[in-house]
Amino acid sequence: MLPSLALMLTCALILSGIMRALRLPALLGMLLTGIALGPYALDLIAPELLNISADLRQIALIIILLRAGLALNSEALKKVGRPAVLMCFVPATFELIATTLIAPRLFNITYLEAAIMGAVLGAASPAIIVPKMIKLTENGYGKEKSIPQLIMAGASVDDIYVIVLFTSFMGMSESGRLNFISLVKAPVTVAVGLLAGILCGLALAWLFRKIKIRDTVKALVILSAAFLLVALEAAIPMSGLLAVMALGGTLLKKSEGLANKMAVKFSKAWVFAEIMLFIFVGATINMEYAAKEGFAAAALIAAVLIIRFLGVLVCLAKTRLTMKERLFCGVAYLPKATVQAGIGGLPLAAGISAGNTILTVAVLAILITAPLGAVGIDLLHRGLLVKEGG
User: Fold this and answer.
1) Residue 145, pLDDT score
2) Per residue in 303-339, pLDDT tens?
């Protein structure tokens, strides 16, 4: 197992470096490593690692959600105003509805399975968007109208919105159809998940005030609590994923200084977790199946991206932004990566019949939109945004 792990890390780091040199997202190198070394290609990943890959992907997802909760800055949304709030859910909703209507016509799946696929596809990628927007802010592009802040705030919260929907649809899938009981159960699981996460966050905030322990130990306690929240899904009707985000958000609300320190800790943990996540997601891709469904998946992704783009324009209607600036926002909101990698394999693991299709579309969405959005931001910002003092 250790030689296999060494090979995975070495290849991932080399390919990630090549991607950075090409000005592409490094995560593409990790994803390609998994595809190349996985059981459907060179088959160089040890079976022992593949057997626990689902657990490792879930750990990585929990770290993603903790980071999202710890960085959920409601003040940023208030500062940018109505467009930022709309960007949190309107583009994702447009994309989800489009996927739900189009996917059953391209694949042999139900509307509920298409809705799950839409929830997987709907999130933008803060991992790609946020660093790009920070760089634009530092260089003065779009700063006067807070365009980078608008995009960062919306992209950070849109993940939470999409995961709430994903959790609800996955709960409905247990019955195999949309029925009244499923519709009632979905908001219950969301509400219980929120409540559990908030209560856990309050308890930990109180504990850390009363007991002086090292920040590293605090991070381990928070991570352990997050694991337990996800595990509780098996015992009571609740959304463990939403509970994890609520835990992080509550800590930020109660103690911003603590939350900022924990965010740094989990950012460091994410360096390794990210590599494992994208390698194992790539390794789960059945290349024969992907080749078979590839054209239909690419057609679906192209169609729903156009709809998503229109959703961004709707959010920015009646704002001070020029048409050029609105077009830039649409391009900047295209990249997908971490959420798709984190939840794309869950339907397959849960035994949903369309799970393979959902995972294939999710991975192709990463391969298509991550470089498209990243390169688009780099190439277009000078022509579409106004530089402060320029």
Assistant:
1) 84
2) 999 999 999 999 999 888 999 999 999 999 999 988 8
Q: CA 189 to CA 202: how far, in whole Å?
A: 20
Identify the burial level of 268 via C-beta atoms within 10 angstroms of its C-beta, where 0-12 means exposed, 13-18 middle and 19 or more buried.
exposed
DSSP state, residue 45:
S
CA quadruple 58, 63, 157, 91: dihedral positive or negative? negative
Strand (E) or helix (H) holding 83: helix 82-87
What 8-state DSSP symbol labels residue 386?
P
Residue with the two structure tokens 């649809």: 169
For CA atoms 46, 354, 58, 9, the dihedral sign is: positive
Stated pTM of the model: 0.81
- How far is Cα 211 from Cα 301, in angstroms, rounded to an integer? 50
SS3 of residue 227 by DSSP: helix
Tell which residue, 119, 18, 49, has the closest CA to residue 279. Answer: 49
Q: What is the pLDDT of residue 287?
A: 80
Per-position b or e across 196-215, b if 16+ CB within 10 A of its CB: bbbebbeebbeebeeeeeee
Please give the pLDDT value at position 155: 81
Residue ranges in the chain whose pLDDT is less than 50? none
Give the other-Cβ count within 10 Å of 123's Cβ.
Answer: 26
User: Using alpha carbons only, how large is the chain's radius of gyration in Å?
Assistant: 20
Share in percent of the chain as helix, strand, coil (round to 5): 80, 0, 20
Q: What integer pLDDT is reported at residue 185 of this predicted model?
A: 64
